[in-house]
Structures are given as structure tokens and as C-alpha cells.
Design a protein that fits this description.
heterodimer; A: 115 residues; mainly beta; 7-stranded mixed β-sheet; B: 113 residues; 6-stranded mixed β-sheet; 4-stranded antiparallel β-sheet; globular
């Protein structure tokens, strides 16, 4: 158990719909990262938050948005869903810059299937 | 921008033998972290081993060890006494400061009984 909690684990939804994926980081971790992994693909970085502030943005579509709340949990919102958005969405967390033994741990992922 | 290269898309090894997975990276930084993650068929991302660049000693975790060559920017993973449960996709990753984790494209490891 990495300590990073993602919900839901599985989600099936129709095209055009909107979903929210939730992530609770490890206790004490300030940074949260979101990654997308399609079938047989590598990990695509979407976005990073550090202590509530957006820190870095990757190849995140305009239909997608995220935020990190004061309690440090994060949500990834996916809207106007398309078939190609079907993927495994990972959340990961780390203590943040300067932390001793800085390590990034991943949640188990949220499987999204768009039909 | 930092890049991570895994030049072996697939590797196979006989059970109980030793296998080495290669990884090279490009960076102008001197203090960073390197990781190997394992992704089995369940698709979980499991941290295998971590190396801090300022440490000269190679990291070891049970049957897993690394050969970290900082000047050559090389970070290979050695798996000793390979077991069937080691079959997975292995990703090398680079991490600097509070920036995102940069992954290689992965190496699919097959264990032959």
C-alpha cells in the first residue's frame, strides 16, 4: 500500500459526460501529480500541484482541469468525454522540494472507460 | 529538457538467472533522484528502487540493485535470482527538485520458467 488513495477505481461513462477523479496523497505530502496511461502506452504527465498551487502543466487537454484543496486532496475533472479518453489515470504524491528522501509514490489508478 | 531513454523495449530471462535493464538520461543538474518502477499486469505502479544522485553508493533492495554511473548518466537495474513475479513492465524515471517525474518508455520483462 503506497498510501496514495484514488477513487473511484473503475468508472464507465458515456461520451459527452463529465467525471471527477479524486486523489488523497500520502500523509504529509504536499505535491500531487496526475498522469494518464492509455492501453500499451507510456505515462503522460498531465498536471502537478504543490500545496494548493498549480506547479507544472503537461499535455493536459482544455477539457480537463484539476485542483488541489486546502486539505491537500486533489481532483481531476474530465469533461465532454470522448472514446479516446479511456485510460488509466494515476495520481502520485511526494513530500515536495527539499524534502529529505524525496520519493514519489503512485496510487492504484482510476480506470476510466468511455462508451 | 530532461529526457530518459530505455533502449530495450523487451527483455527475457530464465527463471533464477540475472538480468540487467538499461536506462540513460540527460540532465544538466547535479542533485536529483532516479527511480525504477515496476508495472505488473495489474497496472499498479510499484516503486522498486531509488537512487539519490549525490550518493556514490549504488542502491540495493533485496534482489534488486542498480549500477549508477553519474558521469555517464547511466542507471541500470539488475534483478538477481529472477522470479515469475518479476514479470512486468519496468520504467526508469528521473526526478529533480519539485518538478514532474520524467519517465522512459519502459522495458517489458518476461520470465521464462
Amino acid at each position: 500500500d503506497s498510501g496514495v488513495t484514488q477513487t473511484p477505481k473503475h468508472l464507465i461513462t458515456a461520451t459527452g459526460q463529465r467525471v471527477t477523479l479524486r486523489c488523497s496523497p500520502r500523509s504529509g505530502d504536499l505535491s500531487v501529480y496526475w498522469y494518464q496511461q492509455s492501453l500499451d502506452q507510456g505515462l503522460q504527465f498531465l498536471i502537478q500541484y504543490y500545496n494548493g498551487e498549480e506547479r507544472a502543466k503537461g499535455n493536459i487537454l482544455e477539457r480537463f482541469s484539476a485542483q488541489q484543496f486546502p486539505d491537500l486532496h486533489s481532483e481531476l475533472n474530465l469533461s465532454s468525454l470522448e472514446l479516446g479518453d479511456s485510460a488509466l489515470y494515476f495520481c502520485a504524491s511526494s513530500p515536495g522540494q527539499g524534502a529529505i528522501g524525496n520519493t514519489i509514490y503512485f496510487g492504484e489508478g482510476s480506470w476510466l472507460t468511455v462508451v | 529538457a530532461q529526457t530518459v531513454t530505455q533502449s530495450q523495449p523487451e527483455m527475457s530471462v530464465q527463471e533464477a538467472e540475472t538480468v540487467t535493464l538499461s536506462c540513460t538520461y540527460d540532465t544538466s543538474e547535479s542533485d536529483y533522484y532516479l527511480f525504477w518502477y515496476k508495472q505488473p499486469p495489474s497496472r499498479q505502479m510499484i516503486l522498486v528502487i531509488r537512487q539519490e544522485a549525490y550518493k556514490q553508493q549504488n542502491a540495493t533492495e533485496n534482489r534488486f540493485s542498480v549500477n549508477f554511473q553519474k558521469a555517464a548518466k547511466s542507471f541500470s537495474l539488475k534483478i538477481s535470482d529472477s522470479q515469475l513475479g518479476d514479470a512486468a513492465m519496468y520504467f526508469c524515471a528521473y526526478f529533480f527538485g519539485n518538478e514532474k517525474l520524467t519517465f522512459g518508455t519502459g522495458t517489458r520483462l518476461t520470465i521464462i520458467p
